[in-house]
Specification:
By secondary structure, the protein is mainly beta. The chain is 5% helix and 33% strand. The longest helix has 6 residues. The relative contact order is 0.19.
Length: 203
Amino acid sequence: LRIRDNTNGNLIDLTETSSYSFSASSSGQRSFDLLVGNPDVPQLTPEYRSLPAGWTMIGQPLIPEPGLESLANVLLDDAGSYTYLYEPAGAMGYNEINGSDSLSPGEGIWVGAYQGFNWTMEGSVPLDGIEVPLIDGWNMMGYPLWSPSDKAVALVIWEGETYSWYDAVNMGLISSTIYDYNSSNDYYFDVNDFEAWHGYWLT
C-alpha cells in the first residue's frame, strides 16, 4: 500500500509509516494517488527454457493473451523441426495433441523434439494464484507460475478445507515426492522446488 504526492512526486510506502506531512499550497488543495498491490512482481525466471532433443515434461508459466492460446503460438513457433506433443489420458496412457490445442493453467504435457530449441512465450502472470485439479493416482502437473517456489508453499484443498503441503502429506492426501524427468539420461528424479516451464509427476 503506497501513496503518491502528485505535487512533488514523493512515493510513500504506508507499510513502513502511517503518516505523511506536507506544506499546504495557497489553495489549500493537494492531489494524491493511492496505490494498492505489490509493485515488485518478480520477472519470469528464467526468461526461457532450453528444451533438448528427446522427451521433456513442460508446463506454461504465463497465461497467453486471448486468441493466442494455441500450442502453435505458445510453443511450436519456437521449434525448428517436427515436435510431438502428448497429454496424459489416465488408464488409456496418452493422447497425441497438436498445435491447434491449448493448455489449461497447471496442465502438463510431454514434448518430444527431434532437435533442441529455446522455448519462449508471452502472456500475463496469474497474480491471484492457480488451482490445479488432481485425480486419485498419478498426475502430470505443469507448474503454472512464473518464478521458482518451494513445494512447501503450495496449499492443498480437500473437501472444502485448505491444508499446508506437509499437513496434506501427513494426512495421506498427497505424496511428499515430486518427480521431474532428465531426458539426457532417461530417468526421473525427485525435487523440492517447482520451476517455471517445467512439468512434474505427483500423486
